[in-house]
Amino acid sequence: MTQPYIRFDKVTKAYGDFIVVEDLYLDIAKGEFVSLLGPSGSGKTTILMMLAGFEPPTRGAVIVDEKRIDQLPPHRRNMGVVFQSYALFPHMTVADNVAFPLEMRGVPKANRKQLVDRALDMVQLGTMADRKPSQLSGGQQQRVALARALVFEPAVVLMDEPLGALDKQLREQMQLDIRDLHKRLGLTIIFVTHDQSEALTMSDRIAVFNKGRIEQIGTPNEIYDHPTTRFVADFIGETNLLDGAIETSDANGLIVALPGNKRIRVAAGSGEATGAAVTVSLRPEKIRLNSDAGSENSLPVTILDSVYHGDHLRMVLDAQGTRLIAKADRRFGDLQPGSKAIASFDAADCWLVRS
């Protein structure tokens, strides 16, 4: 990364003896879209509130553009904030809602209309300036909240689960709209979410949080395909976690012994000792049914359950006591519970994770 635009330098936030965020060190580049992803209570929103100025850090420094800002009030931080609740004034028009931050910052009335019109055009709501919030759909109200956060041209836009109240189809459309806006305007966006697919869709990088600490940070591909811990592998999407022990290693990777006298090859691994207990992450979509029988990573399985998901079947498999989830092609719909099959997968798709 080049010189970071935003830096959390060993930031801790505690309420009495309860530590919400602990020794956070995080760098964010200018123009980057970073999602803070994790379960409820993992510290995501608290981090956003410390950056916005609504919560002071207990220890550590918050730095933006090489200037420490953790002692500055929110209105001097030049940051737009979008909350899950749109917080629009119901008695004001769309234009007046968007103009409100300009009025609070003392922008002359003569200059406000041009700025408001430009912000509404950014979110494709220029024709709805005279409507009231009650006359808009949920997605349109969310766009008004976004326009209000952008109207004063902030250096950073902070979003705290802004799409959580929308239905699935509208939420997915808004994800694409915000991503497009980020690219067109070169915004620096910090986005809080507990939705894994949302973070994977929108982000340049994802920081996965657990109990106030970063478990892993990386690109969506790195986080999904190469999780470093059991928590990340299990939290990001769906995965199979196979506990075993290293039996041998060679130039092509590791042989891992699983319960029930089963063995699989794992391509990645370094420094693990023979006999060491390990956990292997294997994504369901990487499992193939009834192909490559006899290959190194092929296991006889019994179908326990099969659920139709439109574009695939979610199958629960029993590999002689080891439970596997597979995403199978719909052509395997004739494999009913009790059917026998062979599950196979590549060594490159097996990934060692820490507990």
Automatic annotation (TrEMBL):
- Kindly give the SUPFAM superfamilies that the UniProt entry links to this protein: MOP-like (SSF50331), P-loop containing nucleoside triphosphate hydrolases (SSF52540)
Q: Which family does it belong to?
A: Belongs to the ABC transporter superfamily. Spermidine/putrescine importer (TC 3.A.1.11.1) family.
GO molecular function (one): ATP binding
What is the annotated quaternary arrangement, including any partners? The complex is composed of two ATP-binding proteins (PotA), two transmembrane proteins (PotB and PotC) and a solute-binding protein (PotD).
Protein name per Swiss-Prot or TrEMBL: Spermidine/putrescine import ATP-binding protein PotA
Q: Does the keyword Transcription regulation apply?
A: no
Q: What does this protein do?
A: Part of the ABC transporter complex PotABCD involved in spermidine/putrescine import. Responsible for energy coupling to the transport system.
Which catalysed reactions does the entry list for this protein?
ATP + H2O + polyamine-[polyamine-binding protein]Side 1 = ADP + phosphate + polyamineSide 2 + [polyamine-binding protein]Side 1
